[in-house]
Amino acid sequence: MNKKVVIVGAGPVGLLLAHYLLGRDSYQIDIYERRSDPRTVSFSKSRSYPVVINQRGIEALSNIEGVFEALKATSVESVGSMIHLKDAKTRVLPREKPIYILDRTHLVITLLETLTKKYDSSRLNIHFDHRCKLLDFEANIVTFENVASTAEVCANYNLLIGADGSKSRVREKFLSQDLFEFEQKYIPYAYKSIFLTTDEPPSLQPGYIHTWRAGNGIAATLVPLRDGTISGTINFPRKNNAIANFSTTEDVVQFFRYNFPEISQLLSLEEAEAFLNRPISNILTIRCSHYHYSDSVLLIGDAAHATSPSLGQGCNAAFEDVVIFNTLLNEYSDNWAEALAQFTLRRKPDAHALVELSDNAFPMSDKLLFFEFFIRLRSAQILHQLFPKRFSKSLLQLVSETTLPYSEILNTYQNWITKVKQSNKRYMTKTEI
């Protein structure tokens, strides 16, 4: 008899987990997602932004036949980052191993299509437009509400997976359980997405992540995508920022002309108006004392350990969760009590370390410290190439080009993280006065 697994959340991590579990013989999967099927919703209405897939994610995707190949077909291969300076000069940070960039919607659709082509309704059912409403951990029942009809659906499970993001409903239920500790913080920065198109040959070199720093903690990141569009984010302090006070399209145009002249050349009036009306997005970081309940509930991905996107590790860390959980199922012969408990023990140190790394890898405003960061980065790359046994790879290389545990990376670069953390704290204190 198949064991029934209910996954809450049909985002990247929930769908990849379904791939892995269905690769085992004794699992039947039901996935519930509060949003609509992205294959039927127009792009403008979908939740999308660029997602970076690096070595951790590549290894996780490559374990499922055909998935990574399908993803590459819709991705841009990036060989480095290009930092744009105010004097129109650039600095290039090359990569030893390429990363792959695509928007979140295409990532989800790729995982969905490869999943549904391989498995039929005898083992897999996906329910879109279903909001998680009530959970009963003792009775192993979860209740969903159909957002269109408001009808309620009750689902029994042997194993419940909370893959429902940083504002997880499944994790919320953990708060009523004994000895569960939970920390939620908004990082000091917010962002707005930006989408650019041009009929001219791209002025931003393809194959690179392009970044700008405008001072006062304002920065921009753009990526030329495979379909010819350019997508990215404008990041800024949550407090005392000009962007929150924009009232007209002209305010937006002037802001880009002054701070990001290269971007302003690609900015249409339609996108300026859309940027004005687009909501400001805040970012949560999450730390939990454990990720499981008994032998029947598990938190995974952002539901367990949401982090800042500064290192591009959110999706990759979530995919790595899937690999680790699958490995534990192998080690303990699908004994859920052992596998779930071990997932907490093995994953928590690295998940907490990733939050620390992502929050404090980059200086917010100190120009001298940012210059030091660049020098450290290039020096580490060169020295490691010359003397690989004696000098470690750079922090960014270790995070994105290896699968070294995040806790070991934090230990290696603890002095730098502490230095940046103190600098950023001083900067935030000044901006809040």
UniProtKB/TrEMBL annotation:
Q: Which domain of life is it from?
A: Bacteria
Q: Which cofactor does it need?
A: FAD
Gene3D superfamilies from the UniProt entry? FAD/NAD(P)-binding domain
Q: Does the keyword NADP apply?
A: yes
Q: Name one GO molecular function term.
A: FAD binding
Looking up Pfam families in the UniProt record yields: FAD_binding_3
Q: Name one GO biological process term.
A: kynurenine metabolic process
Residues of the FAD-binding domain: 4-356
- InterPro entries associated with the record: FAD-bd, FAD/NAD-bd_sf
Q: What is this protein's name?
A: Kynurenine 3-monooxygenase
